[in-house]
Amino acid sequence: MGSDLIITIVIICIGIVLFIKDYFSIDTTSIIIMALFIVAGVLSPKEGFSGFNHPATITLGCMFVVSAAVFNSGILGGLSDRIIKLAKIHYSIALITFCLIAGMFSAFVNDSAVVALLLPIALTVCRETKIAPGMLLIPISFSALFGGTCTLIGTSTNILVSSYAQEYGLEGFGMFEFSLAALCLATIGFAYIFFVAPLLLPKQKKEQDVLTKEAQKYITELLVEKDCLDSNKPLHMSKLVNDYNVQILDISRDRFNKKSIGPETFILEGDVMKVLVPPKTLNAIRDIKGYRVTGDKRFDKSELEKNIYEVIVPFGSRLTEGSLRSLNFRRQYNGSVLAIRQRGEILYEKLADVNLMEGDMLLILGTEADVDTLVEQGLVVALSEYKHAKVNYKKAIPAIIIAIGVVLAASLNLTSILISSMVGALLLVATSTLKPKEAYEAVEWKVIFMMAGVLSMGTALEKTGGAEKIAQFIEQTLGNYHAQVTLSILYLVTFLSTNVLSSKATAALMTPIVISLASAMEISERPFLVAVMFACSLTFMTPVSYPTNTMVYAPGNYKFNDFLRVGTPLNIVIWIAATFVIPYFFPFQ
């Protein structure tokens, strides 16, 4: 075993630990891995950075633009009224409606965007029908995953594996080449979601506004009296902020609310401050000279000009780049975060120092315009109240025509998906369907950087001969078994790995290995490649295994065990089914 291969294995192991421990964001971890390969001399700078101009990366970026044009036109949101009306009839009808819509749309546009669109609509239905959110949101996420496997552009993993195959001189996959196999698995999956999942999903009807009601208990008013020690001091130097970590939400001065509050805002005698403070801290504040709690009544949100909004941090949001303090959230976006639901835990204290994560649910005190700004910039998805989207037909018609053209051009083999998606993205800008700035903002750059980074792992494995050696080991170990058994084991290893690593990292590692394995076994590589595609996308066991699972985690009031209880049997059923379905449509010889 050469030194370069040993270094490669060590770096990949470091990467796996970083992915599991979640020390850094996924894209940062991916770039760290790429940098380590370059610094160690395993890859040249040109090879290391080749992921940025890889066909899979470019195709994915262009498809983000195409998807954004369809969503921005409002054509999908325009269906919301019909969806709500239909879903309110009965839980079973709501379940079938949302799951079928999630599956159909996810086959052609970004699945995370589809779930982001359906989340507030589903929560609206839950509020009006008393259906527990937990009974709908996991099925919506799982359905989106099944839909994404049905076409080449359904998930980034499909694009990645197909592009890898072409790099190795193999034939890439067609737009609908594996659709029949995927539909077979989807049929089994939907049967499970409709008939079995409702028996396993959490049935308690938790109040949708429980987070809001709990946060309101922490809000009260303080009057600054004449002898207050903090008088004429800026907020950041006050005892109230430094010693008691009190968050100042609003200051009423001379009967007027102060519009802008920052660290340099001075505290003056007579100020009435709306503050967020835990009950035990409030008792301590009562003993501070110069502050008086103005009554012990419960907070009434009608007393403020601002309202309370529930939002979720979607995958790729810039809010995950640091804490609220480092992001200067309050000054940048004019909103105050009252509470954070993170990985099942509700946080009310020291929120400014909390590092936000994808899937976090935030309770924001602000104006409607403030929240709209956050939504428009793709930083959050609003959950509190669904707004009916108006269809802009001037943009909707060209957006849909161009999107259909992208799909048809690739499916009819008129050109590659890379070329058709690139031309489609350019046409959307050229026809003013999207402004250049909108096209740029539509690209989830976090995903692009992650894709570029993880591609270096596959490149390093191939260059150092690691993929071939691993394939030889697998072939020697499983060589006496039928190829179908080998495929089944590879599928099992892949979907288990995806539940702790990212789907793209797993695909980048497994694709060169299965290509080398097929060569060693002298059989077709296609069934193995399809197995990697499906196993990387159809992951249901944890809330962090796929972005859509993470998105529904907090709004559904789920616990980690809910995903294990519902997702594990489904993963096992699909694994067994895939063992027979994939070879049927993609023979080994």
TrEMBL record:
PROSITE patterns: NA_SULFATE, RCK_C. Residues 296-380 form the RCK C-terminal domain. SUPFAM superfamilies: TrkA C-terminal domain-like. Its main location: membrane. It is found in: Membrane. It is a multi-pass membrane protein. The chain crosses the membrane at residues 6-24, 31-52, 58-77, 89-107, 113-129, 136-160, 180-201, 397-430, 481-499, 528-546, 566-586. One of its GO terms (cellular component) is plasma membrane. The keyword Methyltransferase does not apply. GO terms for biological process: potassium ion transport. Keywords: Membrane, Repeat, Transmembrane, Transmembrane helix, Transport. This is SLC13 family permease. It comes from Flagellimonas chongwuensis. The lineage of its organism: Bacteria, Pseudomonadati, Bacteroidota, Flavobacteriia, Flavobacteriales.
